[in-house]
Design a protein that fits this description.
Length: 137
């Protein structure tokens, strides 16, 4: 895990390139920068040619920081920008794949029970539900 942080100034965008990063980027907090402006600042991100997504709105003297849980593993560059008068600090960290716990995409995380036969100990012969269902035919 490696720390990541950047100041996104109003009117200037910051580009994060996954090709230059040390793993998946996880952003955990946005904090309003110092200044005298009392108007809100909106943080947005844009990935590739898609429509920008608003991440948070920070308002001086009300909401000056925001917890985020965003993870980027994009092939395209991610562009962060601020709409409003004050800068915003984005902080987080890089998540590197664990070599000891790495699982392939085809490996199951649980047991496939679709085609297995088992007897339930929770039901008995007294638990007949045939009369409870409505038959529309």
């Amino acid at each position: 895990m490696a720390f990541w942080g950047v100041e996104v100034k109003s009117g200037r965008s910051v580009t994060h390139s996954s090709r230059e990063s040390g793993g998946r980027l996880r952003i955990s907090q946005a904090t309003l920068g110092l200044g005298d402006a009392i108007k809100k600042s909106v943080v947005q991100c844009n990935v590739g040619n898609r429509t920008p997504v608003l991440l948070c709105v920070l308002i001086p003297n009300q909401t000056e920081s925001c917890h985020l849980d965003l993870e980027f593993e994009e092939a395209d560059d991610v562009v962060f920008s601020v709409l409003g008068p004050r800068s915003v600090y984005l902080t987080g960290y890089y998540v590197r794949p664990s070599k000891s716990n790495a699982q392939s995409e085809t490996e199951s995380y649980g047991e496939d029970v679709e085609n297995t036969q088992s007897e339930s100990s929770f039901c008995s012969d007294d638990d007949a539900y045939e009369d409870s269902f409505i038959d529309d035919d």
